[in-house]
Amino acid sequence: MLIYLRVLKESFNFALNALRNNKLRTFLSLLGVTIGIFSIIGVLAAVDSLQREIKGSLSALDNSTIVLMRFSFGPTDIPQWKREQFPDVSYDEYSYLKKNLPDAETVSFVIGVPRESIKYQDVTSEGVDIGAVTSEYYDIEAFEFSEGRFFNESESVSGANVIVLGHEIANNLFPNTTPLGKQVRIYGRRLTVIGVLKKQGANLLGNSRDEQAFLPANFLRRIYGDNNRNVWPQIVIKPEEGVDNAEFIAILEQKLRNYRGIKPGNINNFFVNQLQGFTDLIDNITGQLNFIGLIISGFSLLVGGFGIANIMFVSVKERTNLIGIQKSLGAKNRFILYQFLFEAVILALIGGLVGLFLVWVISLVASQFTGDFEFVLSPWNMFLGTAVAAVIGLISGIIPAISASRLDPVEAIRTGM
């Protein structure tokens, strides 16, 4: 064990001497490894950060959540002309499923409507994202309040003139006073503010509850009616925990088919969209991005590997006389082999660590200029970068190390003289 520690120490000293004595050559040789590790870990860190941000945007909703509507979240084989004939889901269907769908923890009716302006006295917030939902939506999405509450079932059913404001909307309309109990004007009606959501910040998708306002769905039904193609009704369903997802969806589809009177053999005229499918799609896309990035970055590592191999062949040639002396004094082949292998790995690790440092610095700088989006260099990616650099050094140094270990001591001394 001690001899290997001694070899490691000597090899580290040789590597440092190589760096000091041949600065330009070593710099050019290690540049490939540095760029390769920087490229690979940079891609992995960027994709991981992107994936974390997107999933964080969806974290308020459980992956098992189902959205029932006439649109599909993803690609579909149903032609567009036929999809355009699909009817919207209705409030009556929401009421039916709420009463008759087994194993459903929560069922909520949601209406997607255009943005609207909210006014209080002489202050106006324009382009506010309106969430028209029933009271059950509070149990589906993780709302947190800085003041007040969400509207209850009675207010939801009656379509009461109440409103819940996002943090930024409340600050804009009521900069120096509490919004609770105040009346704002929207859709030509006066609505009483009953709650203000906690500050959330914008996510990668550009969405933020800070710039949203939530109203009872039945209030918006009085405004738009039930047959307006400019709005997007949805039924959002959260199954009970532990329920078999495929079986639950099959029952849901059959319930709605029966309610709509769809004949056997005819296709569904609605879409059952699963958030789990959406997150799986995100995983698939980020996986492909990782793969493409690794392939491209692999070429940089290949160049770096050739650079390490080149510097090791030169090192063997320069130290041929020293190798002959070491072997004549009793050094075994594996001692010489390990000596050059350690040197190659150490040189590659230096290049890899420089690459990791560059990724870390750039991630810090980039995070400062991207608002709420944060680039993250995970411990796993740091370990992966270090391991890849070590493997590249090992592979690149194996042939020069073997050639050095097989040198004949007499010929090596004569050649070096």
Structure description:
- With 417 residues, this protein is of the alpha+beta class.
- It is 57% helix and 16% strand.
- Strands 1, 2, 3, 4, 5, 6, 7, 8, 9, 10 and 11 form an 11-stranded mixed β-sheet that branches.
- A hairpin with a 2-residue loop joins strand 3 and strand 4.
- The protein is elongated and about 100 Å long.
- Residues 26-254 form the MacB-like periplasmic core domain.
Question: Could you outline the blueprint of secondary structure elements for this entry?
Answer:
Elements: H1 2-21, H2 23-58, E1 66-69, H3 80-83, H4 91-100, E2 104-112, E3 116-120, E4 123-133, H5 137-140, E5 145-148, H6 153-158, E6 162-165, H7 167-173, E7 183-186, E8 189-197, E9 212-216, H8 217-224, E10 232-239, H9 245-260, E11 271-274, H10 275-318, H11 320-328, H12 333-369, H13 379-405, H14 409-416
Parallel strand pairs: 4-9, 6-8
Antiparallel strand pairs: 1-10, 1-11, 2-4, 2-10, 3-4, 5-8, 6-9, 7-8
Helix pairs in contact: 1-2, 1-12, 2-10, 2-12, 2-13, 4-9, 10-12, 10-13, 11-14, 12-13
The overall pLDDT average reads 79
Helix share bin: 55-70%
| Overall 3D form | elongated
User: Would you identify the regions where 5 or more consecutive residues have pLDDT less than 50?
Assistant: none
Overall domain count: 2
User: What is the beta-strand fraction?
Assistant: 15-25%
Number of strands: 11
Order of SSEs: HHEHHEEEHEHEHEEEHEHEHHHHH
